Structure formats: C-alpha cells, structure tokens
C-alpha cells in the first residue's frame, strides 16, 4: 500500500472515536505549524530528500510527513508524485510563496497563514491582496432539495428523517 493511501486511511478514519480523532488532528496541526515555521524561516533553502530523510529532518513519523506532503503539494513549484510515494521517493519542498499563502487562506488554515514568518516573505499588501482574491473566488456549495422532517430518511433506513439522521 502506498504511503498516501495509508495516511488517508489513518487520518480520515470515520470509525475512529471522535475524541481520538480530535487529538490526532490537534497533534498533526501542531507539527504542521512547526514544520512550516522552519521552512518559511529559511526561504532560500530548498528542502529536498527522500520522504524518510525529510521525516527525520523534521523529527516526525513518515506517515505524518506524508500528510504534510499531501497538504503542500498543490503549492509546490514542481508537485511531488504523492500518489505513488514510498519512503525512499525523492521529494522537494520548493514552494511558490504566493500560491502557498493563497492556498492556506483557501483551506482556512489561519494557524499557518498568520505565522509571523510570512512578514519576511510577502509584504502585508501582497498578503492582503491574496487574501481578498481567495475570499472573492467564492467556492459555493449547492444545496439539494431540503429534506422535510416527515420525509423518508435519505440513508435508506425506512424511518422518517426526524427519527433517523435528522436528530
């Protein structure tokens, strides 16, 4: 099984205890923030190496590094082959500053786009413009027909919505 698939199975386990899932994500976001601080704090250093080497460099487990690589991949100058990535796959963290900031805003990752390390990378004006541009891009969620309280539940249980998933 490729690393990314293993990571996604672990991270998005819908059967996990909600408290355990919350603890998992809190720990992940703390490590993610620490890695970004290091990367953004050394903007002239292009971080490269195998997935295993980067995990060691940032003192995290390989699967956590895989999650980080999955998250940053759309902001890289050259995306990594994350779908087929293994521990010995060579990867690069050379990121496009504006694209990374824009994507962080789009993901509502304020713990990342509000890092003080951005001050030395992008001017306040550029950050404000990227923020406005991202917010104006407006991803809209189309809602389907509203389910009435007494309608059959869409999960297929045969119960009324109010007695099933509508609680």
TrEMBL record:
It comes from the Bacteria. It holds the Pfam family SEC-C. InterPro entries: SEC_C_motif. SUPFAM superfamilies: Sec-C motif. This is SEC-C motif-containing protein. It comes from Lachnospira multipara.
């Amino acid at each position: 099984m490729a690393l990314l698939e293993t990571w996604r199975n672990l991270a998005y386990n819908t059967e996990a205890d909600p408290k355990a899932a919350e603890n998992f994500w809190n720990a992940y976001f703390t490590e993610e923030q620490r890695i970004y601080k290091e990367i953004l704090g050394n903007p002239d250093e292009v971080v490269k190496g195998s997935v295993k080497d980067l995990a060691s460099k940032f003192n995290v487990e390989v699967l956590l590094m895989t999650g980080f690589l999955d998250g940053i991949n759309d902001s890289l100058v050259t995306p990594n082959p994350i779908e087929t990535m293994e521990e010995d796959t060579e990867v690069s963290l050379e990121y496009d500053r504006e694209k990374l900031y824009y994507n962080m805003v789009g993901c509502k990752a304020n713990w990342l786009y509000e890092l003080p390390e951005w001050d030395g990378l992008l001017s306040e004006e550029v950050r404000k413009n990227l923020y406005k541009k991202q917010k104006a891009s407006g991803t809209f969620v189309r809602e389907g027909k509203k389910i009435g309280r007494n309608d059959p539940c869409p999960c297929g249980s045969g119960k009324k919505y109010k007695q099933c998933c509508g609680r």
